[in-house]
Amino acid sequence: MHPFSGMRGLQKPLIFIYNSNLYMIEKNKIQELVEQWLEGKDYFLVDIAISSDNKIVVEIDHADGVWIEDCVALSRYIEDHLNRDEEDFELEVGSAGLGQPFKVEQQYRNFIGKEVEVLTADGKKVKGLLKSVDGRDFIVTVKEKVKVEGKKRPELQDVDRQYNMDEVKYTKYLISFK
To answer: What percent of the chain has pLDDT over 90?
Structure first.
């Protein structure tokens, strides 16, 4: 027996669909707003994430760090250009956290000359000095034991290792408290 069979004239089950977000906010709309606000500033966009419940998370960065006042200004700019009557959303604007994996090329460039940790595609962690960035490729100088001709024991030397941003699991700045 069908659960709705006692209702007059009902031949098939009723299906109720409830969508609390009638309008999903599109990522490209937020990206366009962020890029407008960034124009002429030294900040750069790291990431935009929008969850199914319209929680918008915008991450920005700057070579010298991110000021809270600028996060507030960007947040207000985005809110001023969205209509809450049409789009219910939660907005969070912040910096890409220090010690978090790099997401964009500019982050790599900002940390040239600093110590980083790379997790390679095969799961090996490598620590060294970020030497250079060329497009999606980057070089990390690492300390490795190298067999030197005429010596019995390997010596610790600087060796350059090249990686591609798309082929590593992550790269992140190593925070040092020395």
So the answer is: 64
Return all residues near 104 (Cβ < 8 A) that are at least 6 apart: 44, 45, 46, 47
CA dist., res. 55 & res. 25, Å (int): 9
- What letter does residue 50 receive in the DSSP assignment? E
| Packing angle of the helix pair 68-80, 27-38 (nearest 10 deg) | 130
CA distance to 96, 150, 165, 167, 171, per residue, from 111 (Å): 13, 37, 14, 19, 11
Q: Tens digits of per-residue pLDDT, 106-135? A: 999 999 999 999 999 999 999 999 999 999
CB 58 within 8 A of CB 34: yes
19 to 28, 33, 54, 84, 121: CA distances (angstroms): 22, 26, 12, 16, 40
